[in-house]
Amino acid sequence: RAAPRAPGPHNVCRVLARRAHGFYARDAGVAHRKNLGLLRKIMCQESTKFKNVWTTHSASPIAYERGRIYMDNYQCCISSIAQAPRILYQKSKCAKSEKIEDALLLECPLGEMLPSPSDYKASLIVLTVQNWLLRLSADSGEVLEKIYLAGSCCKSFRYLSWDTPQEVMVVKTIQNKLPAAARQAGIQQSVLFYLAVFQVLPLSFIGMLEINKKIFGNSVTDVAVSNGILIVMYSVGLVRLYNFKAILEQFMEQPFDLGQEFNWNGQVGVVGKYPFGLPCNIKITDTPPLLFEASSLENAFQIGGYPWHYIITPNKKKHKGVFHICSLKDNTLAKNGIQDMKCCSLEPDWIYFHPDMSGRIIHVGPNLIKVLKLKEVKNRTDQMEIAEDFTIVANRENCVNNTVTVTASGRVVKKRFNLLDDDPEQETFKIVDYEDELDLLSTVAVTQIGADGRAHLDFHCNEHGILLKSIPFRESWDVTYSHEVYFDKDLVLHIEQKPNRRFSCYVYQMVCDTAKDD
């Protein structure tokens, strides 16, 4: 006789849904989700404070990646996870020829069998000024892998980015421009950019291609690769999208592996070794099939939402600050799809798709944050409309902006101008971010009176926008300086850039407020 079937749900969709909600105690992610839920509750308690535990200053840029603070051009690494930040490694000062231009943090993928034990630990991919691509241990700074990029023709690689995060990496050169004397002599330069593409962990070479003006046109200003799409931007505001995977398959002349001996165009060498570097083995000989194109002011173009939509600004200066939300399928404008805050401010408002993958849209102005959502138009399933999910408003209760005042003697004085929406003396939003592990929306609002500026970091419920916690920054905040704020679980980090390349870093950690502390 057949054995009786095990009790429980048998519908695959139901099983997956229950697993996502943490119904199975033996699921590896259940304990982690519960812990993060507890951390969020503790963090938002009134008795929980954030204390400034460490401050440092530097003459070189300061960077932050996943609990690690990098200083002195990545020669010094400090862990911010401990109760007090501690140095993980300190390397001797590097020569100018070894200066690091860009870096990406590489983390081990889950469930993958990797060739080397060092691959299971976090590492840092760095790009040097001399076109070396290095993989360093994130904890010791030890060089794990070393690849030379530039070949026979001089290529100045400067930028690192992800095509697919933690899977496919792209290294890009600066735009090739001939010296004025060469242009006057009539010398032509057709190659604008080079892109080198790598699979990571294990690090392997996919291919190198050139962006040629003979194929893509003379007015190309920039190029990027993201999520399998080649994005080409033009000086006239045009943005064109191409299928990057199809380009690799159609135009790759010959695949190469790192460390492989090769004979390429009369050159004999080893792939990724000095002085030969990497071969340009992807030659685009014809214009690839166009997926999509749009015209937008300053090439501002974003795709997101469900169903797919894109955001652009009409390509005229008078439309700066006006955003159109359109369907990617047929380019139709969504109902209420024109978003305009009509701000009168020095700094423009900005808009982007919510990074929580909910398909919502965040629109940030000087004193107002709108979280918008896409929904079907009633009785019309073929059209979407933009609706307001919730708003966050700056605290300007004490702000008085009278255009007419009366002096003590009774004289009436009329102002000839109104305050700007982002006037420093009024509370103004400067930074909006999302903490995915705690599902919190964070905002930084600043008020500056005279030389003294005060800022606070607020945590809002990502679902409804309710204010859960407010953390004041102890240091003064000058709105004319450049600022970065990182909120990472129980850590808040503020990096400030002052004039003359002076950098400061302020680290705050969560502490429980006790009578002894008081």
UniProtKB/TrEMBL annotation:
The keyword Acetylation does not apply. One of its GO terms (cellular component) is Cul4-RING E3 ubiquitin ligase complex. The chain crosses the membrane at residues 191-211, 223-242. Keywords: Membrane, Transmembrane, Transmembrane helix. One of its GO terms (biological process) is protein ubiquitination. The keyword Cell membrane does not apply. It comes from Manacus vitellinus (golden-collared manakin). PANTHER family: DDB1- AND CUL4-ASSOCIATED FACTOR 17 (PTHR14815:SF2). Pfam families: DCAF17 (PF15802). This is DDB1-and CUL4-associated factor 17.
